[in-house]
Amino acid sequence: MVRTLLRAEGHTTLGVLDGETALKTVRSSPVDLLILDINMPGLDGLNLLLNIRSSGNMTPVIFLTAKTEPSHQRLGLDLGGDDYVTKPFDPALLAARVRSLLRRSRLTPRPSVLTVEDLVIDVDARTVTAAGSPVTLSPLEFELLVALANNAGKAVRRQDLLRSVWGTQGSAKSLTEHVRRLRGKLDAAGSTGLISTINGVGYKLG
């Protein structure tokens, strides 16, 4: 019903059936707006949003859910949701809220290039240069670097990086190994010492 409504409004839509697939889709294919249910199989809507926001992705999010309790509404908005619509819903009102969020988001476009000292990350092209030299990264290394760059100069907790990059599939050992590889590639390209280990917390870029 929702996809039919949005298509009638002229939008292109993509539907997925579970939170893990939604997270992979958001990472691989930038979208203009997300409509999430809290009761999603696997990774629920709240944890999905937490993963999305912790990576620095500020794509507008509307919760459309049967969870009507004020506590759920507050949590959804506090985690970074932009709107919260409960079922049953008025289709015309949902369409109006989608239009409103899209208008606002287009007034504040997301930066597609992140720069930290002599490191340049083109998020859309998925390219990285360090001290003027191109750096070849694996998909996970790239996502890890973007998560750190979106919080440049700040310590990012290990658990936040795991949620942002791996979802529910990561491990502390995998994170440590990917940071080691990423640090080695940046150092080899000439951007030495950019990634710092913050004992008891996580890592910092810049």
UniProtKB/TrEMBL annotation:
SMART domains: REC, Trans_reg_C. The modification 4-aspartylphosphate is found at D37. One of its GO terms (biological process) is regulation of DNA-templated transcription. InterPro entries: CheY-like_superfamily, OmpR/PhoB-type_DNA-bd, Sig_transdc_resp-reg_receiver, WalR-like, WH-like_DNA-bd_sf. Residues 1-102 form the Response regulatory domain. SUPFAM superfamilies: CheY-like. One of its GO terms (cellular component) is cytosol. The keyword Transcription applies. Pfam families: Response_reg, Trans_reg_C. One of its GO terms (molecular function) is transcription cis-regulatory region binding. Keywords: DNA-binding, Phosphoprotein, Transcription, Transcription regulation, Two-component regulatory system. This is DNA-binding response regulator.
